[in-house]
TrEMBL record, chain A:
Active-site residues per Swiss-Prot or TrEMBL entry: K78 (charge relay system), S173 (charge relay system), S197 (acyl-ester intermediate)
Localization of this protein: Mitochondrion
Listed name of the protein: Glutamyl-tRNA(Gln) amidotransferase subunit A, mitochondrial
Gene name of the record: QRSL1
Cited function: Allows the formation of correctly charged Gln-tRNA(Gln) through the transamidation of misacylated Glu-tRNA(Gln) in the mitochondria. The reaction takes place in the presence of glutamine and ATP through an activated gamma-phospho-Glu-tRNA(Gln).
Automatic annotation (TrEMBL), chain B:
Intracellular or extracellular location(s): Mitochondrion
Entry-linked Pfam families: GatB_N, GatB_Yqey
Domain Asn/Gln amidotransferase: 365-514
Annotated protein name in UniProt: Glutamyl-tRNA(Gln) amidotransferase subunit B, mitochondrial
Keywords, sorted A to Z: ATP-binding, Ligase, Mitochondrion, Nucleotide-binding, Protein biosynthesis, Transit peptide
One Gene Ontology cellular component: glutamyl-tRNA(Gln) amidotransferase complex
GO biological process: glutaminyl-tRNAGln biosynthesis via transamidation; mitochondrial translation
Protein source organism: Ursus americanus (American black bear)
Family, per entry: Belongs to the GatB/GatE family. GatB subfamily.
Record has Nucleotide-binding as a keyword: yes
Record note on quaternary structure: Subunit of the heterotrimeric GatCAB amidotransferase (AdT) complex, composed of A (QRSL1), B (GATB) and C (GATC) subunits.
Known catalytic reactions: L-glutamyl-tRNA(Gln) + L-glutamine + ATP + H2O = L-glutaminyl-tRNA(Gln) + L-glutamate + ADP + phosphate + H(+); L-aspartyl-tRNA(Asn) + L-glutamine + ATP + H2O = L-asparaginyl-tRNA(Asn) + L-glutamate + ADP + phosphate + 2 H(+)
């Protein structure tokens, strides 16, 4: 516990020193959640559950028995992670009302460290999308739409209304989690990343979005999109916080046979001073990834039809009829389209030409990365996205499939190879919006990757979002800003 | 998820099953099997053209049947194949269902070690090659008792392949006409079982029980017929047979049906059928329409299953994490063929008797316990166990462990017989009494019913003498050379002694008297 942080007090130190109590912190975050409700970042706000957790945390602190640096820290979880007793919808009608009886392993680990679960965040339905616009609870709005930095560039009045018809998307599919962190409603959030779903919204929302190596973090309880590419993702306001959360989450889970057995020790990121020996590679991106990713995303046929608590239509003529009607009612077009594609590619006559071919291409892509890293490159560097965040009205001009293909261009290959990657906010565009850069590391060198990212973060000194004019009560934001991160920002 | 299942595909040689000559369709020789490899749930046989150009004339060409069996055997383990929930027979519906069994979103399969060991043991016992690397696949179809929408199985690369099983079959009417046959085992694969469906016709609904600890053995039979030398015929699948007797009936009736159809110029449809026990024939199953594409794909949540032997075991490997085939092989129990061989060697029994002893659960143990406690000859024990004891069991439809007669009791009885304290017909009476009234020992029964053999030779001589005196005609017959007449005398003496005299001793005495 000692020696993890160096200088000015971060929030966990503040908690330890009693400068602020867990319940106070909880109240501040809750109040911000309510004030930023228009962002639609949260599907469920678990007020009562979180209050109880905060009270328990407070008791621990009073006795001097805190569980660690995450004890009392408000977090949010993307709504495709199973949370016991808290509705888990995947932003789909199919799972509306579904209250799981168990926690995802990563959720349990955070709760075991005393984290405060503020709520479940919004996403594209079943994580299928790159905008966080296609869920049944509506799209998520990017907090930067209301930032001083953006509005000044657009020559809008500083005291513009909250309702802005030209608001920007967060990116996706973990847009709710990214917005929740960016708007200071929590200190860390869980996302998921299958083709860039954590890194993409992180870049658009100006936060850190970390994708761990496949097999490092348990997927038990993460409702799957592509089983061989999904990972839980971490969204925070600084790299140190991401490392802290990773230290809690990483490690073998007997309930997930795809996690590696090697033991994982919690770690603190060293501060790099001399990076002269580091070799950073910058790839030329020319591959048309998308068509292959579609074929790989064929694990939709197994999407659950629903269970005890989930949506079921009224037809009872036959099981088949009920299934068909339930699927039509429960899934949106994107989801249904992908399920049908998946079924198509797995048909006996198509398997060889599509599925097997896609796997082969995937192997080639993975090998490409291996070769690059073997040639002396330590990390790769690419933009995270093609542009800064676009307005919703523009985004929806193209369909989900097209958008996903375009937007995942820098991020998708990483999932195919199972590598760790992180998006770090670097600067504001000339529109005043965040731009993120992506670092890609070798498999299971997550710590090294984050170390480099941390150094980089220090170099660029990305500005804090200025949301003050939006908030009636500026003090909340100010205070949270001061606390800033769980760990330290130099 | 489910109760773990092993699936065996049995293949045999494509021998002639039945010779058809002038309408006779009987005769079963070897059980036969498939040679075609089954790709992804579809048989390549179905795609071979059936020769319809040559119309088969009734009774002229021989027919050969090809039968392949898919045997679903539940592994005896405490928990299920992928889910960790327990397996208990006859538990209340849905009381043993884990989150994974119910396919709750986000749950993942975790392989059960004991099930893998059981599969390896089965593979070794059936002389299979154990695949050091095997893979898991998803087989997709929709049914109410399959909440995930797919079943995890081993389609591409199962855990064991290319085995064989030797078995005996009666070639003729006499029990001694036993021949040994071999059936090929194509593969052994691990797979999940689906839930149990209970169809409630009254309320038009189906109730699902996801416990899945039912039906310990189930067989599907794949049957086709063809003329030897010609390509294989279209096959049908007869599903869900759960007794050996019905399996045989179903196969026979389906073979008959197919021959009948073909001989009348019709075609066989590649379809799934069920066996109607009452009618004694197969019927098409209504809910299966056409060929189903199961959209197989690799199960992404289970890495390849790697097995090791002593040579390939990585150094410093955690024994909890690896399975060593050699270690399992060493711990295989004695296989039936070995046991039978031992019985033949040790007790000089006939091979067919060794089969019979092993074919009934608990019978071998019973036999061995009797042998331990009596000095009677093994052949006598064998005969009593297989004929009289087993006969009584079958008559009352009892299992060996339900027998009212204990091994000790039978041993005691056989010892009495061996000592000639009682005659063999008396012994049978005692046995009947033992069967009826538990708790009495053979000695008690013998003395109660006064079944002891006469030991007093003088008294017996007197009886013989009396009988001879009383039946001079018969005596004359004997002296005239009618060897069978002496049996009448023996019978009379036995009657006079209330069957308490040993017939061989009676015979001796009579012969002595008659020759004097």
């Amino acid at each position: 516990q000692l020696g993890r942080r160096l200088s000015c007090p971060p929030v966990s130190a503040a908690l330890k020193q009693g400068q602020i109590t867990p319940t106070e912190l909880y109240q501040k975050c809750l109040s911000l959640i309510k004030k930023t409700k228009f962002l639609n970042a949260y599907i469920t706000v678990s007020e009562d559950v979180a209050l109880k957790q905060a009270e328990d945390s407070e008791k621990r602190y009073k006795k001097g028995h805190s569980l660690g640096d995450l004890d009392g820290i408000p977090i949010a979880v993307k709504d495709n992670f199973s949370t016991s007793g808290i509705e888990t919808t995947c932003a789909s009608n199919m799972l509306k009302g579904y209250v799981p009886p168990y926690n995802a392993t990563v959720v349990q680990k955070l709760l075991d460290q005393g984290a405060i679960l503020m709520g479940k965040t919004n996403l594209d339905e079943f994580a299928m999308g790159s905008g966080s616009t296609d869920g049944v609870f509506g799209p998520v709005k990017n907090p930067w739409s209301y930032s001083k930095q953006y509005r000044e560039k657009r020559k809008q009045k500083p005291h513009g209304e909250k309702e802005d018809s030209n608001w920007l998307i967060t990116g996706g599919s973990s847009g709710g989690s990214a917005a929740a962190v960016a708007a200071f409603t929590c200190f860390a959030a869980l996302g998921s990343d299958t083709g860039g779903s954590t890194r993409n919204p992180a870049a658009h929302c100006g936060v850190v979005g970390f994708k761990p190596s496949y097999g490092l973090v348990s997927r038990h309880g993460l409702i799957p999109l592509v089983n061989s590419m999904d990972v839980p993702g971490i969204l925070t306001r600084c790299v140190d916080d991401a490392a802290l959360v990773l230290g809690v989450l990483a490690g073998h889970d007997p309930k997930d046979s795809t996690t590696v057995q090697d033991p994982v020790k919690p770690f603190t990121l060293p501060t790099l001073t001399d990076v002269s020996k580091l070799c950073i590679g910058i790839p030329k991106v020319t591959l048309p990834f998308y068509y292959f990713t579609e074929m790989l995303s064929t694990q939709f046929p197994n999407l659950q039809n629903g269970d005890n608590n989930s949506h079921r239509c009224d037809i009872d003529v036959s099981t088949e009829a009920m299934y068909a009607a339930t699927r039509r009612e429960g899934f949106n077009d994107v989801v249904r389209g992908r399920i049908l594609s998946g079924n198509f590619f797995l048909l006996k006559e198509n398997y060889e030409n599509y599925f097997i071919k896609a796997q082969k291409v995937r192997r080639l892509i993975a090998n490409d990365f291996v070769n690059v890293f073997n040639s002396g490159v330590d990390v790769l560097l690419t933009p995270t996205t093609l542009s800064d965040a676009v307005p919703y009205l523009e985004f929806i001009k193209e369909d989900n499939r097209t958008r996903s293909a375009q937007d995942d261009i820098f991020t998708q290959a990483v999932n195919m190879a199972g590598l760790p990657a992180v998006s770090v906010p670097v600067a504001l565009s000339n529109q005043g919006l965040p731009i993120g850069l992506q670092f890609i590391g070798r498999a299971f060198r997550d710590q090294q990757l984050l170390t480099i990212a941390k150094w980089f973060e220090k170099q660029v000194q990305f500005p804090v979002i200025q949301l003050q004019e939006l908030m009636d009560d500026c003090s909340s934001v100010f205070e949270i800003e001061k606390l800033g991160s769980v760990s330290l920002k130099q | 998820m489910a109760a773990p299942m092993l699936r065996w595909c049995c293949l045999g040689r494509r021998w002639v099953l039945a010779c058809i000559d002038g309408g006779s369709r009987h005769g079963r020789g070897a059980a036969i099997g498939f040679t075609s490899s089954r790709k992804r749930g579809q048989s390549s046989v179905a795609q071979q053209p059936l020769i319809t150009a040559q119309k088969s004339r009734k009774g002229e060409h021989k027919w050969a049947a090809v039968v392949g069996l898919e045997i679903h055997a539940q592994i005896s383990s405490n928990s299920k194949l992928f889910s960790g929930s327990q397996v208990h027979f006859a538990a209340p519906p849905n009381s043993l269902v884990s989150f994974f069994d119910a396919s709750l979103p986000g749950t993942l399969p975790v392989l059960n070690r004991r099930c893998v060991e059981a599969a390896v043991m089965t593979g070794l016992a059936l002389s299979c090659r154990i695949n050091k690397k095997s893979l898991f696949d998803r087989k997709h179809y929709f049914y109410a008792d399959l909440p995930a929408g797919y079943q995890i199985t081993q389609q591409r690369l199962p855990i064991a392949v290319n085995g064989s099983l030797a078995y005996s079959v009666c070639a003729g009417k006499k029990p001694s006409q036993v021949i040994t046959k071999t059936v090929r085992i194509k593969q052994i694969q691990l797979e999940q079982d689906s839930g149990k469906s209970l169809h409630d016709e009254l309320r038009s609904q189906t109730l699902i029980d996801l416990n899945r600890a039912e039906g310990q053995l189930r067989v599907d039979a794949n049957i086709s017929v063809h003329h030897p030398g010609e390509p294989l015929g279209v096959r049908t699948e007869v599903k869900n047979l759960n007794s050996a007797r019905f399996l045989a009936k179903a196969i026979d009736s389906e073979i008959e049906r197919q021959i009948h159809e073909l001989e009348n110029g019709r075609e066989i449809l590649n379809e799934t059928r069920s066996f109607d026990y009452k009618l004694g024939c197969t019927m098409p199953m209504r809910d299966k329409e056409g060929k189903q594409d199961y959209r197989f794909m690799p199960e992404p949540n289970l890495p390849p299953l790697l097995l090791y032997d002593t040579a390939s075991l990585p150094p410093g490997a955690d024994p909890q994490q690896v399975i060593n085939i050699d270690w399992i092989r060493e711990r295989l129990p004695e296989l039936p063929s070995e046991t039978r061989e031992k019985l033949v060697q040790q007790y000089g029994m006939l091979p067919e008797h060794s089969f019979a002893l092993l074919n009934e659960v608990g019978l071998l143990e019973f036999f061995q316990n009797v042998i331990k406690e009596t000095r009677a000859e093994p052949k006598k024990v064998t005969s009593w166990v297989l004929n009289i004891f087993l006969g009584f069991l079958k008559q009352q439809n009892l299992a060996v462990n339900e027998s009212p007669v204990t091994p000790t009791a039978l041993a005691e009885l056989l010892s009495l017989l061996d000592r000639k304290a009682i005659s063999s017909s008396a012994a049978k009476q005692v046995f009947e009494e033992l069967w009826r009234s538990k708790g009495k020992t053979p000695s008690q029964i013998v003395s109660e019913k006064r079944l002891e053999l006469m030991q007093d030779e003088e008294a017996l001589e007197r009886v013989c003498h009396a009988v001879m005196e009383g039946h001079p005609q018969v005596v004359m017959d004997v002296k005239r050379g009618n060897s069978r007449a002496i049996n009448k005398l023996i019978g009379l003496v036995r009657k006079a002694t209330l069957s308490r005299a040993d017939p061989t001793v009676i015979k001796e005495i009579l012969e002595k008297k008659l020759s004097s």
